[in-house]
Amino acid sequence: MRLNFVSWHMSGSKRNDHSYFQAHQPVYQQQTAEGHSVRALYMFTAMADYARLTKDSDKIKACKTIWKNITNRRMYIHGGVGSAHIGERFSFDYDLPNDMAYAETCASIALIFFTERLMRIGRSSEYADIIKGALYNVVLASTSIDGKAFFYDNYLECIPEFLKYQHCRHGIRDKYHTCSCCPPNVLRILADIERYIFLWPKMVSRSISTSQVPMNSLSMKPGARYRLIQKCRGVAGT
Description:
The chain is mainly alpha-helical. The chain folds into 2 domains: 27-203, no CATH class; 205-238, no CATH class. It has 8 helices and 4 strands; from the N terminus they run αβααβαααααββ. The protein has helices at residues 2-9, 37-54, 57-73, 105-121, 125-139, 160-163, 182-191, 193-199; strands spanning 35-36, 89-90, 209-213, 216-220. A two-stranded antiparallel sheet has the order 1-2. A two-stranded antiparallel ribbon has the order 3-4. α3 (57-73) packs antiparallel against α4 (105-121). The protein is globular.
């Protein structure tokens, strides 16, 4: 069964398309985002971490080159990336159709991870802008108010007559997905959201953080009008 699955997964155009697996060039020689969008962005995140830890200027430059390709030519206005439904992948520059957008929620979360790693290398408002756009317009918007239903893909245009003939698109948030990678990914980034807001001055929101430790209390209140209110309480050592 396992061999049959591998044979099926590698069949057709993917078999000889090394770019789908980001294996077409040595990773730090790649200049454009190719292949499966989520896996690519996870790899770019690791590349940025390694470049920062080794203080390798060439590797840092390579990561920034890929990031600029994504954000300038392969990203939707709402922070979605990975426009092709077939293969859940990056396609080519400026291939950003509104009605056929894929823009998987996990891909935008992975873009946030990659961008945050670059912000660790050098703080810049352009990184904060991308994180905020993807977080507010894709990650939060993909989730229902009660947190029980999710968009897997986040297209920008929804025509009911068109969706009638598209079995893979329902036009509503679903409670269950055949591939349920997005819901837990949303939960883990929301659980970590105070780190983005309070540790990076450029990542502002209308929020209050209160940390309680023995004999001390610290309160932070960044000023902005984004309607995200996060209150954190904790005890030292927990």
